[in-house]
Design a protein that fits this description.
By secondary structure, the chain is mainly α. It has one domain. Helix content is 76%, strand content 2%. It contains 8 helices and 2 strands, in the order H-H-H-H-H-H-E-E-H-H. A two-stranded antiparallel sheet has the order 1-2. Helix 4 packs across helix 5. It is elongated, with a radius of gyration of 28 Å. It starts with a helix and ends in a 5-residue tail after the last helix.
Length: 285
């Protein structure tokens, strides 16, 4: 019983050390990044497909009018594939960087005992012991050497801060652009509500229209280019319109979640970099 109790205590102590060393900010940001990117890319891809079908069916009868739009939609869909792949890879790298630099930071403050990988990384990012020869008394373990080499790549939060900052600026533009289709569909839906309840507006039903040309979706010579009155109301009642509208909203939410995750990554990496930089110079807080 005593042996079992000691094993349980050892397991609990090990779990406690792992929890103390875990970069919770990076874990939360990684989960939020994966969720946001999956939502943005998946819903955005299907929403663009739905928009293409709506334009083909209701707003233009001539293929040449929306040929350029279809090419742009297909190009955006290919970009979405690349965006999803890049963010899942970069999110994994940021999580790994969070684990390594958090371990080095907490070793500095003495929060927990380091592992072999932690020692290898701390020697890299904090300027620890160097110059041990191959024939020295304390030869580095093979796993420690591997982690040391890995730490040379991951143990540079300054590089991750710069890349993440630039990526955040770019994604801020993506977030703003993802609001544009939501705005267009919301205006169309509001117009349909005015047609469905004519008592709430002073305009005649026939003058209430959704003009795709006004938003630059179609050229001005496209025919008909716009749908008005009861025809527009029938479009808004279709499952295709409702689904596309909600998919664009979901994509917008996914873009917002990804933006929050990038900001969290940037704050965490900046903090780790500041601590390692200052402590490496012997500066005390």
């Amino acid at each position: 019983m005593k042996i079992k109790a000691s094993m349980d205590m050892g397991l609990l102590e090990c779990c406690a050390r792992c929890l103390v060393g875990a970069p919770f900010a990076s874990l939360v940001a990684t989960g939020l990044c994966f969720f946001g990117v999956a939502l943005f890319c998946g819903c955005g891809h299907e929403a663009l497909t739905g928009t293409e079908k709506l334009i083909e069916t209701y707003f233009s009868k001539n293929y040449q009018d929306y040929e350029y739009l279809i090419n742009v939609i297909h190009a955006f869909q290919y970009v979405i594939y690349g965006t999803a792949s890049f963010f899942f890879l970069y999110g994994a790298l940021l999580l790994a960087e969070g684990f390594y630099t958090t371990g080095a930071v907490r070793q500095i403050f003495g929060d927990y005992k380091t592992t072999i990988c932690g020692k290898g990384l701390s020697a890299t990012v904090t300027g620890g012991q160097k110059g041990r020869g191959s024939r020295g008394q304390h030869q580095a373990h093979s796993l420690e050497r591997v982690c040391h080499c890995l730490g040379k790549w991951l143990g540079h939060p300054d590089k991750f801060v710069g890349i993440t900052y630039a990526l955040t600026v770019v994604w801020l533009l993506v977030f703003a652009c993802s609001a544009v289709p939501v705005y267009i569909y919301f205006n169309t839906w509001t117009t349909c509500q005015s047609i469905a309840f004519p008592s709430k507006t002073s305009a005649s039903i026939g003058s209430l229209c959704a003009d795709a040309r006004m938003y630059g979706v179609l050229p001005w010579n496209a025919f008909p280019g716009k749908v008005c009155g009861s025809n527009l109301l029938s479009i808004c009642k279709t499952a295709e319109f409702q689904m596309t509208f909600h998919l664009f909203i979901a994509a917008f939410v996914g873009a917002a979640a990804t933006l929050v995750s990038l900001l969290t990554f940037m704050i965490a990496a900046t903090y780790n970099f500041a601590v390692l930089k200052l402590m490496g110079r012997g500066t005390k807080f």
